[in-house]
Amino acid sequence: MKPRPGRALTSIMVVLTLTTGMIEAVSFLALGPVFTAMQTGNLLLLAFALTGAAGLSPAAAGVSCAGFVAGAVLGSLFESSVDARERRWFAPALLAEGVLLGAGALAAWHAGVDGPPAAPAGGHHFGVIAFVAAAMGVRNITTLRVRVPDVPTTLSTRALTAFLGGLPHVADPRIGSGARHEGRRFASIGAMFAGGVLGAWMLREGVGPAVVLAVPCLLVLLLGAGSWAVPARRTSEPG
Question: pTM for the complete prediction?
């Protein structure tokens, strides 16, 4: 059963977008530089690193790609198997993502990751990267299946483009315009920016990467538990 479209689902997706900003702040500023959610950027970092660009680790980027692929494949199999039994897959998917983020936070805490590596990222950073990237692989499969317009949760380029294309005197009817569309796009862009600012600020103030990762973990788990607690007839529909 798929989530029922509406304001509640859109709000969940906006909160997930906020968590992406925080996660990528940790990934780029404390684990890499590497991305774990925005794999387009990560693929470019991998390409640059393979040419010997200074300060970049092909191993870190490769681990992120591998973790993301594993999360996306396993997430797709899991959600499809739940859906085939005509049960809700959205809430369990959020809970699975939250567990993986929690594993990443625990790995960062256990390894004592407290800032960007002085040298190219090592094994203790790789474990954190793998868990977080796997969580983001699950996230991307989940949001792809949900299909909330303009709120993909792990990137903002399309939302920003649609927002600009929907402005008065520019509006293209083929991409949609009006307060509802533009409000959703603005919320998506703002949430990503706010999450990045919050994550980077926490790291700058000396908050450990494990704690910063724990915040998105808790938010995702709360969203999953909340979605699960609401009766299926109010949150889901066949399909």
Answer: 0.91
